[in-house]
Amino acid sequence: LPTEALHDFDAAISRDPRYGPALVGKGDALSCLGDHSEALKSYSKGANDEARLRTAHAQLRLGKLTEARGNAESILSRDPTNMGATHLRGCVLYTEGDLETARGAFETVSAAADAHALRAQACYNLGLTCLRLGQHDAALAAFDACAKSLQQGSGTGPTPDETVSPSFGRALVAYAAGDDAMMRDHLGRARREAPRSAYVEMFSGVLAS
User: Fold this and answer.
1) In sequence order, which residues have a C-beta less than 8 Å from that of residue 198 and are 6 or more positions away?
2) What span, in angstroms and rounded, lies between the C-alpha atoms of 75 and 116?
3) Rg, the chain, Cα only
4) Which of 15, 103, 115, 132 is 20 to 30 A distant from 5 in Cα terms?
5) Is the pLDDT of residue 209 over 70?
């Protein structure tokens, strides 16, 4: 549990304040608890690219897009094959509205042989990007690929509120197409796929209001 893990990471950090794995672990625990400002402080004390990547994630969650993109691009300047940084850069570009470039980043990660852990997230974000571009068939194909990746053990997302749900993506496509029955069916499935994700319930609430 994140709260219990914090005590262990703090104990390790008290012995070695620059111990990278403990700083990253503490940041991850704080992120899972939704305390992204404190998570950013912990990540920022790390010195390697893994800590920088986590720093960029925290900056993105806090809306610090320029800083997040800068950290991702700094990592990529040293290691252009870093799929975590490529994916993070795609997320920043998506948030900034540069959808075509974001799509390219997500396609790269979803097709990379060594990016299994990220593949479901990349496919999900690719689906959202295609949806915003009005490419509904491509979006559905990406959400199908996300579901397949999840079945193969790909990661579901770094925090509860970032849990990917291909059914939620399909619900959004149905909503955009005006298919109310299909949208509600997929939304019910999304609640089971991502039971701790606020975005599913928020969308449900908007529809009910």
Assistant:
1) 161
2) 20
3) 18
4) 115
5) no
